[in-house]
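Entry 14. Ran structure prediction on the chain below.
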Amino acid sequence: MPNISRRVVIKDVLLGAHQPGIKPSKWDERKDRLEIVTTCSGEELALISKGAQSTPAAGWELMLSGQSLWQGQTAYYWTLYGITNSAQVLN
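Output, structure tokens:
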């Protein structure tokens, strides 16, 4: 897995398995999944969200920690780095 560590701020979730900031309450429903987001810098990224991670939300600052192919698409592993005021993100 290439080292592509960098920070991004989420502007919008285009495709999420759950509502932004939410994850299933039942552990057996928490599965790894692909989610599509746009960043404040205008990138569209595919993210691999692990089962214990919530769907990212606008204003979340993520650290991308690696990349992989997910169903033939380049996608990035991530860790929550911080949370920005979402009103600032949307402006």
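The first helix runs from residue 86 to 90. Will compare against last week's run tomorrow.
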